[in-house]
Amino acid sequence: MTIYNFSAGPATLPKPVLEKAQAELLNYQDSGMSVLEMSHRSPEFDKIVKDAEATLRELMAIPDNYKVIFLQGGGSTQFSMLPLNLAQGKKAYYLVGGSWGKKAYTEAVKLSKTIPFEPILLASSEDTVYDHIPSFDPSTIDPEAAYVHLTTNNTIEGTAIYDLPDTNGVPIVADMSSNILAARYNVEDFALIYAGAQKNIGPAGVTVVIVREDFLNDQPQLSAMLDYRIQAEAGSLYNTPPCFSIYISKLVFDWVKNEIGGVDKMAEIQREKSGLLYDYIESSDFYTNPVKDAKDRSVCNIPFVTPSKDLDAKFVAEADALGFKNIKGHRSVGGMRASVYNAFPRQGVLDLIDFMKKFEAENK
Ligand SMILES: Cc1ncc(COP(=O)(O)O)c(C=O)c1O
């Protein structure tokens, strides 16, 4: 039975990447050791981390005045690291279009009880279970604020921001965890981008941060591990980094570059692949996608429901038995969610649609 893994993260990795990692696992490029065993100060690993950075820079067209850092602590650590480094003594606005954006805001509020800065909720679509990207009046934003934080792809709710909003000149900071490399963004439009790797980049354990140099912290009081400047100046090697996760990420960057042909091509593939499922859901009067406005739809996470919770549960159970794994929606929204990140095969979407048609015919 073919298994299709619709997990929202950690998620499907490109098969050629896994095969290469397997082939190199015991003896990395004649070093006589595995990357799993290698010193992070060795020339071999130094080349891995530098190549990973160089290829990511090329893929995303990251300008020279931005630093690229590979950190630990997941996307969640960035919720605190970001205001610690960028917002002290200032206002920081949060555009909340999903549960992860709310977490970022909630963490900022918590931190502001002990660190002097003022997190402000710019807009939220929580009252309609984040079924759309909220809008706001840019003139309400204090132009002296540190940043406007937004989530480019709401993993749980299946919405995305492709055209950045007017923020009254205030720099934009983005959590790009679930659509980095799946849609084209202009890095220069952001002060900082962060992304947990475990969806479109690689395995869990590494978080990519891309930060414009003039936003690096100038004050020495931060813990070194939480200081972007120290991490950047150490070239992601301030302490022992998640070496194997960085290595796999490097292989994924190579895959996007050499086998796919870059981010624009990847984005086109994602639009077409997700479009197959969106079009089918739209044409069906049995399934519904809770995201109403097509322009807000994620190319990576596609939520949908049947007419009832009982049928949703039946769908998940039957799908699972047929090899469509991890398709249950997040507990906060229910229903189903097909996460079809960059490495997810198009055939998996086609086979899912066939199953959905059959389920519809049997249960309508
Ligand atoms: C958009 C987004 N931000 C942040 C996170 C949290 O990431 P982590 O589990 O790496 O802390 C997730 C996890 O799924 C996410 O989807």
UniProtKB/TrEMBL annotation:
Its EC number is 2.6.1.52. Binds 1 pyridoxal phosphate per subunit. Keywords: Amino-acid biosynthesis, Aminotransferase, Cytoplasm, Pyridoxal phosphate, Serine biosynthesis, Transferase. It comes from the Bacteria. Homodimer. Gene3D superfamilies: Aspartate Aminotransferase, domain 1, Type I PLP-dependent aspartate aminotransferase-like (Major domain). L-glutamate binds at residue 41. The gene is serC. Residues 3-349 form the Aminotransferase class V domain. Its cofactor is pyridoxal 5'-phosphate. Pathway: Amino-acid biosynthesis; L-serine biosynthesis; L-serine from 3-phospho-D-glycerate: step 2/3. The lineage of its organism: Bacteria, Bacillati, Bacillota, Bacilli, Lactobacillales. This is Phosphoserine aminotransferase. It is an enzyme of class 2 (transferase). It catalyses: 4-(phosphooxy)-L-threonine + 2-oxoglutarate = (R)-3-hydroxy-2-oxo-4-phosphooxybutanoate + L-glutamate; O-phospho-L-serine + 2-oxoglutarate = 3-phosphooxypyruvate + L-glutamate. The keyword Transferase applies. It is found in: Cytoplasm. Catalyzes the reversible conversion of 3-phosphohydroxypyruvate to phosphoserine and of 3-hydroxy-2-oxo-4-phosphonooxybutanoate to phosphohydroxythreonine. The modification N6-(pyridoxal phosphate)lysine is found at residue 199. The keyword Ubl conjugation does not apply.
